[in-house]
Amino acid sequence: MSLQTAWERRRSLLEDSSTNAYRLLGTGEENTRGLSADRYGNLALLYRAVGKRTLLDSYLEEAADFFLSQPSITSVYVKDVLSDRSQAQPAPARHLGGDSLSSDFTVLENGLVYKVSPLDSFSTGLFLDQRAQRLDFRTGAKATEVLNTFAYTCSFSVACAAGGAKVTSVDISKRYLDWGKQNFSVNGLNPDDHEFFPNDTLGFLKGAAKRGRFFDLVILDPPSFARNRKGTFSVRRDAPQLLRLAEAVVRPGGKIYFSSNLFDWNNDSLSRLMRLTLPQARIVKPAPLPIDFSFEAHPVSRILAVVDRGRR
What we know:
Layout: H1 3-9, H2 11-14, E1 21-25, E2 35-40, E3 43-50, H3 57-68, E4 75-82, E5 94-98, E6 105-109, E7 112-116, H4 131-139, E8 145-149, H5 155-162, E9 166-170, H6 174-186, E10 195-197, H7 201-211, E11 215-220, E12 225-228, E13 231-234, H8 235-247, E14 250-260, H9 267-277, E15 281-284, E16 301-307
Parallel strand pairs: 3-4, 8-9, 8-11, 9-10, 11-14
Antiparallel strand pairs: 1-2, 2-3, 4-5, 6-7, 12-13, 14-16, 15-16
């Protein structure tokens, strides 16, 4: 598929002044010889798959020229990435053309501002494929209490707070929670009106249940695998326990959102897992994937469920 065709598919996004962060070139049917790309503000960030048939620099230069010819893009960088990201971290992004950028800057998503750092590592600060779900939660968040676990830089938290919710954010990393507080502040939201806990999610959920804390929405967007001072977390191994602990702190009629980017899971897998683990949960549809992620080889899997006490 040509870069021009992929660009035209995103015409509605390109004309949306409230959002300037999204996927420009997908990893599935749009994949052009091992190349994918994201937009962060005026930056087009390319990802070149490194392997036996690595894309030549000459093609990267052609791609950079194409993106720089578009009115919204003024800078192009590239990251070389291995297919197995557990094996090595990428080198910092390499400048291909246009303006040179600092590591950190802000982008817009549905009118909200998020700090991103897309040039130095895999973790850019914003998972672009959750854009539609953030908007959905923001729209329905008025006067609710939300628990955002594995909160990372708190983008879900910011969206819910912008909709009027009281949000509790939990992440093992204080650094990422501090980043999240900055995201609150740049949107005119006072972090002191919300709660931030640098804790292990499983431990926090156990403690919340003992204290009798309940929430209207629990967001579970865990990594596939993580290691911390308390041990390891594997979503494949720990998902049933995670769901049961979340169910214990959801108010009757409240919701659990569970998302995973595990390679061999899909929405059907998550639905089966939910039904087996929490038979009292009623599956409802999450927000559809945004158009720019409709062509991925392995899109993020997502499920939204209402917890109805006593339902079997």
